[in-house]
Design brief:
heterodimer; A: outer membrane lipoprotein receptor (LolB), chain A; twelve-stranded mixed β-sheet; 14 strands; B: alpha+beta
Chain lengths: ~280, ~160
């Protein structure tokens, strides 16, 4: 059903890509294969630039629907498996993996455990104070922050330069969502992520091309997010695949930091705005 | 595999000279992660409010990069005692007791003029934790460092000796 809603321009682009990939005789046999899409990423000669920047209202609506569902949740637990490209001076990309265990009770409790090959961090927000702890370095710092998770994430980013992974989950369908920034939005088609049936959408906005897979059916949760930093020469990518539990209750003490033995108190450096 | 890797430190003063000296004696080239002005870190959020585009100006080393996560632009690492040949923003709990870092450390000790306000992401060996007014300092010889979070990264700022 969804495929009926696909933008005509998208279908044309796919069609061109197929033509590039396979001999014309096989064209009818090729479905929505990954190969076709990989090729479609490079615009076919003659594809008009305008065709690439169309906003499918259906794609925007999917974001809104997902956002409203996220906002309806009283608490949730997410396990995210992520990859982040780092770019060497040579332009070569190196991929690093990380996991995030996130527990939230809305509107004002958050706990995250972030583990990557290079760094481990724990983040606690108990409604009054946000604390970051480094379990290997044993440093912790706390600051008082406003009364919701969302406000706290804004303060963390704007005042302490702390960009929290998966922060997007708390911004969709709010006045902090950046839907107005979207310059292109496509419905790619049905897809599967970790065995779950999802719908795949692709968007562009200043600096980034991004794709999201949203679970099909009555629980439109994000299954996967991919962000390409299109403004960087090597176009590094961040991907995260999410597994959700919206039913299990979360204990109060999950959200409150108790300094372990040997933990040392430090401070957050205050961020200052950068002139363009 | 040579266990010693390092990266250039963009800030003035501390360690830079040491790294340059160490570089001459290390066979394995170090690969620096590109976080110079004009480049930036990979973005991890879509909604703008979730992303930082600020800099933490800790050493008056102004950074014009306006990319998301630009704070880490000034946060190059000197990695010791690890198997990494590509350095990113790494922290390990063994910073304080590095083994097999004689080249880097020896050079550091020889040339370091620890300028108050300069910043590093690693400490020299044999530091002692000192608590002053409830905050943590690292005393390494005659130099005092104040650890702090810059976003999710730990940096050490050289401060005036506390006693």
């Amino acid at each position: 059903m969804k495929s009926n809603h696909r933008q005509l321009t998208t279908a044309r682009a796919i069609s061109r890509a197929r033509t590039l990939v396979v001999a014309g005789a096989f064209l009818p046999l090729i479905g929505m294969s990954g190969t076709a899409w990989a090729q479609a990423a490079t615009p076919a000669p003659g594809a008009s630039p305008a065709a690439a920047n169309v906003i499918n209202p259906e794609a925007i609506q999917a974001l809104k629907t997902m956002g409203l569902y996220l906002r309806s949740l009283k608490s949730f637990t997410v396990r995210a498996e992520s990859t982040t490209d780092e770019v060497l001076d040579s332009g070569q990309k190196i991929q690093f993996a990380s996991t995030v265990d996130l527990k939230a009770r809305l509107p004002d409790r958050l706990r995250m455990d972030v583990k990557s090959d290079s760094k481990q961090r724990e983040l606690y927000y108990n409604g009054k104070t946000v604390t970051q702890y480094a379990p290997r370095l044993k440093y912790y710092a706390s600051v008082a922050t406003p009364g919701t998770v969302r406000e706290t994430l804004v303060v963390a980013a704007s005042q302490y330069d702390l960009t929290v992974p998966l922060a997007d989950l708390f911004f969709w369908a709010t006045d902090k969502a950046s839907l107005d920034d979207i310059t292109a939005g496509l419905y790619v088609g049905p897809a599967h992520v970790g065995g779950l049936a999802c719908d795949h959408y692709a968007f562009r906005q200043e600096g980034i091309d991004w794709q999201i897979w949203i679970q099909s059916g009555k629980t439109p949760l994000p299954c996967k997010l991919l962000i390409t930093s299109a403004d960087l020469p090597s176009q590094p990518q961040y991907t995260t695949t999410l597994r959700w539990d919206v039913n299990t209750a979360i204990d109060d003490k999950t959200f409150t930091f108790v300094p372990p033995k040997g933990a040392q108190k430090i401070e957050f450096a205050a961020a200052v705005a950068v002139a363009k | 595999m040579n266990p010693i890797q390092f990266q250039k430190l963009p800030m003035a003063g501390l360690l830079s000279v040491a790294i340059a000296i160490a570089a001459a004696s290390v066979a394995v080239p170090a690969y620096a992660v590109a976080r110079d002005a004009g480049k930036g870190a990979t973005k991890t959020n879509v909604n703008k409010s979730a992303n930082s585009n600020k800099n933490v100006n800790v050493n008056n080393n102004s950074n014009k990069n306006v990319n998301v996560n630009s704070n880490v632009n000034s946060n190059k690492n000197v990695n010791v005692n690890s198997n990494r040949h590509v350095d990113v923003d790494v922290d390990y709990d063994d910073h304080h007791h590095p083994i097999g870092t004689a080249v880097a450390i020896g050079a550091t000790v020889a040339v370091t003029a620890a300028i108050v306000g300069s910043v590093t992401t690693t400490l020299p060996p044999a530091c002692t934790i000192v608590i002053v007014n409830g905050l943590t300092y690292q005393q390494c010889g005659s130099t005092w460092y104040q650890p702090q979070y810059v976003g999710s990264s730990v940096q050490y700022v050289v401060v005036a000796p506390m006693h």
